[in-house]
Amino acid sequence: MRIGLYPGTFDPITLGHVDIIQRAMALVDRLVIGVAINRDKGPLFNLEDRVAMVEAECREIADRTGGEIVVHPFENLLIDCARDVGAGIIVRGLRAVADFEYEFQMVGMNRALDASIETVFLMADARRQAIASKLVKEIARLGGDVSKFVTPPVETALKARFRG
């Protein structure tokens, strides 16, 4: 069984993330969505909310593709998380050249820690390349329309968070 790990904070999950998840499902039998706890980033949504949003968004994808998607919170090293879930592939999404520089460094470090785990980069769909969770949160905070960047349930959660 080919197992992939797609890590991120998913704060919140965007249509860009969903695009990468859908395409990653063509490469693996089981995709583990690693929701990083990462206290340093100070997420807008707590871990339970982020996990619930990711699970909700992935249900239909798993049903449609016939693959298995598992949501797995983690706080350890990415390479250790990959080992924990039995992943032989780490899936990373790229939006722009700026992403590549950071990801290139991460791949080098991860390969030094465990050369048996490969990293696969998927380019975001051209319509989704500008989407970043940070920007989506800022637009929502200022009352802008985020419907082009997230699904309706996530949009509702963002509006509720900034209303309160």
TrEMBL record:
GO biological process, alphabetically ordered: coenzyme A biosynthetic process
Binding site for substrate: 9, 41, 78, 92
Pfam families hit by this protein: CTP_transf_like
Name of the protein: Phosphopantetheine adenylyltransferase
Subcellular location field: Cytoplasm
Catalytic reaction annotation: (R)-4'-phosphopantetheine + ATP + H(+) = 3'-dephospho-CoA + diphosphate
CC per GO annotation: cytoplasm
Role according to the record: Reversibly transfers an adenylyl group from ATP to 4'-phosphopantetheine, yielding dephospho-CoA (dPCoA) and pyrophosphate.
Tree of life domain: Bacteria
